[in-house]
TrEMBL record, chain B:
<dbReference type="InterPro" id="IPR003593">
    <property type="entry name" value="AAA+_ATPase"/>
</dbReference>
<protein>
    <submittedName>
        <fullName>ABC transporter ATP-binding protein</fullName>
    </submittedName>
</protein>
<dbReference type="InterPro" id="IPR003439">
    <property type="entry name" value="ABC_transporter-like_ATP-bd"/>
</dbReference>
<keyword id="KW-0067">ATP-binding</keyword>
<keyword id="KW-0547">Nucleotide-binding</keyword>
<comment type="similarity">
    <text>Belongs to the ABC transporter superfamily.</text>
</comment>
<feature type="region of interest" description="Disordered">
    <location>
        <begin position="257"/>
        <end position="279"/>
    </location>
</feature>
<feature type="compositionally biased region" description="Acidic residues">
    <location>
        <begin position="258"/>
        <end position="279"/>
    </location>
</feature>
<dbReference type="InterPro" id="IPR015860">
    <property type="entry name" value="ABC_transpr_TagH-like"/>
</dbReference>
<dbReference type="Pfam" id="PF00005">
    <property type="entry name" value="ABC_tran"/>
</dbReference>
<keyword id="KW-0813">Transport</keyword>
<dbReference type="InterPro" id="IPR050683">
    <property type="entry name" value="Bact_Polysacc_Export_ATP-bd"/>
</dbReference>
<feature type="domain" description="ABC transporter">
    <location>
        <begin position="42"/>
        <end position="263"/>
    </location>
</feature>
<dbReference type="GO" id="GO:0005524">
    <property type="term" value="F:ATP binding"/>
</dbReference>
<dbReference type="InterPro" id="IPR017871">
    <property type="entry name" value="ABC_transporter-like_CS"/>
</dbReference>
<dbReference type="InterPro" id="IPR027417">
    <property type="entry name" value="P-loop_NTPase"/>
</dbReference>
Amino acid sequence: MADKVSVRHDLEHTALTPPSATSGLLEAFRRRYLLRLMVRREIQARYARSLFGLAWSYINPTVRFFTFYFVFGILLARGNIQNFAIHLFAGMVLVHYFTETVNSGTKSLLTNKGVVQKMAMPRELFPFASMLVSLYHTIPQMIILTIACLWTRTWDPDLVGMGAALLGFTIVLLFSTSLGLMFSVFNVLLRDFGRIVQTFLNVLPFTVPMMYPYSMITERFGTGWPHDLVMANPLAEAVLLIQRGFWWTTTTSEPYSKSFPPDLWQRGFIMLGVCVVLLAFAQWVFSRLEARVPELLI
Amino acid sequence: MTTLDHPVSPAAPPPAEPLTSIVVDGVSKEFALQYQRTLKKIALAKLRKQKVKDTFLALEDVSFKVPQGQSIALMGLNGSGKSTLLKLISGVMKPDAGQVLTRGRISGLIATGAGFHQQLTGRENIFMNAAILGMSKEETEAKFDDIAAFADVGRFMDTPVGNYSSGMFARLGFSVAVHVDCDIFVADEVLAVGDRPFKKKCMKRMEEIRESGITMFYVTHAAASVRRMCDRVIVLESGKVGYDGDVDEGIKYLHYDDSDDEPDVADEDSADEELASDI
């Protein structure tokens, strides 16, 4: 027989620890290999046994895009914004990323219940992996967006604009991860939660300035409370930021002062801070409620 | 970290003594029983002054310590809290009161069949499962052939495990668990589904695990395998420790000895027989 395990693993210098202890979301960095396997599995599983497979990731947003484009751009003649389609699509990339993350994150513990009930692991990885899968699915949409911008022949991208788009993406990443994390546990405690989330996600695309210009809000409400309410949603800032990067740089006749709030950058960074705090809060909520998850997963 | 080795007992043991592997200290676990599921039913039940929910103590003030390398049989009737205790030790659940501490890497199986994804193939599940148990890609690759040979699912290795027979499913789960380079091995009536040759193979493997100095903690109802494999018996009775100590005494305590179908222990063959049929 080889050496006893206690010698081989140097157990004398290993501490006694609670077997369920994890460092929460930070485990995502420590257990990258496991996370990679989980992401790969979810990419496979999301469209398992479906004929179109990954194509559904594009069919859905495309149909939605044309619906919005037709209703808002043509019927309601919101198309008087220059390059309205890009204005809309740039926003939709982020909104779609957000809804996909929150949706699949909310369901993540339930869909993985076989593993959750039987194996000890940092369960934060499930909603986090869902977020990464959604992020993966935005890549082709970003390519389409870039092609559309080039198509206009008037696209003049600048570094500041790309920075704005990146900031918008980061806000959505943090915001959707926080919500996915919290909602995944809520959904185990109370299955109604998934439906409540679904309802909100259906309303969400209409509350951010992508089917209509930002100027419409200010023209109608000035900078009064309805304006503040719309802008209290981090997603609104994120959408404006990505429009700054992709849409505005394709236009020749849209004045910056009309299309964006004067304090867009300040708002963006404040929302970034808010989302960081929210993520810490979500982790706290998750850690507190997680203990009851395995027994409620039936 | 060396000085913090024993947060529970302030006096560190002399170095000659084996290390503590598992500490279970005043552990309780409570489950909620909810009788009504919807708002309407809850409201109606409240009106009728019926109970809406109740709690139930699956484990109550359980305490014991396990030195490294000991193998323990956890015994008791169905519903006495054995699986709950195993889940607490493996870290799947957290205790409501008290604390559980373990040293080193834990592997094993809780309930039959591991946490597998139905759509993934056997091969993919081995990698996924090994990763959850803390093995790296290289480690899994190095051990893959052993794992596959032990599970012996043949050409089904590359089909989704959803198509497996329950025996194959259990075999694959067990195979991954026993190949993890762990310090604590927990097993929960794992061998209930496998066929006889596989059970024999499992017993052999579990003996190897025991001999390599891994702490073993396993749930069983088979007296003969307990005699052969274990140094200590813990009996749970409605969530409390009813007995903790010597193997023969423990089996007597449970009256598992005086049943008619119990074979003579001195007779190795019939003990094997029992292993194969009863585990």
